[in-house]
Amino acid sequence: MDWDQLKHGLALEYALKPTSYFSHLADIPPSVFYMNIIWGGAFALVMCFMPETLPSVVIARAVKKRDTHDPNAEIVAAELTKVNVFQEIRFVLTMALRIMFTEPIVIFLGFYNGFAYG
């Protein structure tokens, strides 16, 4: 076997050997895995039946339910239900960066994850 062929597999070997050597230390029974699936499925099922809490949807539904003929309330409900797609995309894309740079714990957890698992 040529050394170049051997060298290509060394990085993979160095990455995978500790998992096989120390796997007995983290011997997790399969029942824990199944319990995670059961709890996750139950949580997802409960979340499907939770009421809406988005303020724009809640306010618009309340105005429609009251059935008032107040023009201001109808205008507010109509404006809240309109969605500007580009504004929403900009909000979603920039919110993660805003949170990362304004919340120190988030940036340090990001550094930790990058250092530990990157």
What does this structure look like?
- By secondary structure, the protein is an all-alpha fold.
- The protein folds into three domains: 50 residues, no CATH class; 31 residues, no CATH class; 36 residues, no CATH class.
- Helix content is 79%, strand content 0%.
- The chain is built from six helices and no strands.
- It is elongated.
Uncertain segments: none
Q: Return the string of H and E elements.
A: HHHHHH
Count every beta strand, where a strand is a DSSP E run of 2 or more residues. Answer: 0
Task: State the helix count.
Answer: 6
Radius of gyration: 26 Å
Task: Give me the secondary-structure category.
Answer: mainly alpha
**Mean pLDDT across all amino acids:** 76
CA-based shape: elongated
Number of domains: 3
- Give the helix proportion (percent range): over 70%
Strand content: under 5%
